[in-house]
Fold these 3 entries.
Entry 1:
Amino acid sequence: MAKAKAKAKQAKGKMKETAGRMMDDKSMQAEGRGEQMAGKAQEAASNAAERIKKSGR
């Protein structure tokens, strides 16, 4: 579930970045890149938690 939310955040950020690029809005582009990075960090944390959970078996 956490991975799905992370991927959704990345997709939302990509769309926002693209929209900002189309409208020549630098702040929207930056906000979109920020959301993408937050989604990637969230995904990495989820992956790490999964590996820790699996190694404990």
Entry 2:
Amino acid sequence: MTTKKEDAHSQHCPAEGVLKLLSGKWKPQIFRLAVDGPVRFSGLLREIEGSNKQSIAVALKELEAEGLLEKIVIRLKPLHIEYVLAERGKAMLSVFNLMEQLK
């Protein structure tokens, strides 16, 4: 449960908001893979060791809701869905790259 004190602090700390966007199971890995180009659900399952369908689906839904990824339906046979970085996600690339350099 979040207290009012924590809410007030997070409103004054922009860095905390950015970190929360990419926090959660598999979100940083999905974001990193999407930097290189469109990603597909089945590809993410293969690329991210230890992942499962439910956790990938939840992470994709949350990243899409936050405006970091866009869902594109490819209406060719067979029908498939790709996820690409949205404008907000592209705007975060410089911050994400700096964070990777600190490791």
Entry 3:
Amino acid sequence: MYDINQISNAAAQLTGETLEGTRLRLGTLQRFDCLIPSAPADQALLESVLASALGAVDGQTRPFGVREAKPLDAGLMLRVERAEELQALLGLLPYRMKRGPWRGVRGLTVQKDGARLRFGFRSWVFEQSWRPAPVVLVAGPHAEDLAALLAAHEEQVHAAGHSAQWDPQCPEPGPKRQEPATRSLVRQLRASSALGSALLRRPRLWDSLAGYAGVQVGTQMTEYGLDWTVDRQVNGAQFDDARLIEVLTDHIVGCGLRVLDHACGTTECTVRLAPRPGMWGWRGVLTVRSRLALSSPHIQVTGPRPLTAIGDRLGVSRPHANAGVQEGCVPDRGGAVVQLMGVPYAEGVRRDDLSWVAEQIAAVWACQGLATAVVLTKDRDHLLGFRDPGQPVWATTSVPKTVEGWRRLRITPSPGELWLLKVSPDDEAVTVALEHARRTYDRVILVGRNDDWPYEDQPLGSPPMRASSCTGPGRMRGTSRSPQHPNRAPVVSR
């Protein structure tokens, strides 16, 4: 039910990996609901430190100056475009001044790794755990001697009378006192390190949009954590924010964010996005500010690149965002609704089992070219009262909350679609969700509580569908259970 070429294209278009390398990486996965993996907390912190430097370099021909960001089992591999990006990373390295305080990011290390540089942290910076130590491998432009650049930087530090402190082979004790947060980049970035890492792992997103002229990234401390700001320069009048939002809110290839607000004018467009509640390492808001760049008439405006991740077709001169989830943008499909119910006793089918069954059934329909959806009734999540380890001491408020909407479950061959919506179990919320789903999708599966009966709030106006169309051998029809499978969920067709 997956097209390896399709999902490889979707990932490679955002990371810059080769298609062959992406296929090999994705071929080892058992699930394809997260094509660009999220980094663990310590790894994300290291990547955010590097992203903060790469995002501030001027004159970059590619976003962040990164040509490729390849996720590895042991971390991340970056291939930068110019020597200027390497100099920016070397500027982060810590050194001890002859007189005065330390400079650079304390605890950051670097060493030669063949033709690449290996960046990492000293053990007292990150939490000791079963996970491997964080590492980012950096490769430079063709024929660039990275070892010579590192040696020249070290010689420059020594010539100024300072001592380099970034060699991991030379032990260095941690500081006796914690630096103030206003001076410690690590303490600031720890609050929303996952957000910076997510941006660095998708560098080619920005130049896939219309009129790309450059991006710069900055951070700002807030009362709830650390905000990231992307200033995007655009040649031409098309900001292309609809496609940008669709990628940033996507869970499969994008960052899984939610829109807080979106305001557009003639010369500037600003969108703010926040993470889902309860996510560690995401205590911040991402602000993307798109501005018209000052360009001469002879500068050619770059067109948008088709993005497989959001359903763009190759060869389309001006791809548009997928309108399948936008109210009123598609004709009324009059989709049929099927409800899955559990057995009303303790040994019955659990909600997670029903959700998994519903996803598999809907995936088969999606591969047949149908727009399908799963509506899952779910009580409000009760979060345990553990303190977020990424919450800084200066955080006095919560991250702005957002409303959950439709979420894509997987990438399907066109024109198929597969979406999920979680709603509260009250009848009004379910009715509204079903009304929208029937207009937007061809087939809808409703998963209710284990003690629910089918919702009879309105006639669905579609002929009944037999469960036999999707459940295969050993299937059940109506509300009866198969004697061969006593714990299988009854299927009610409506």
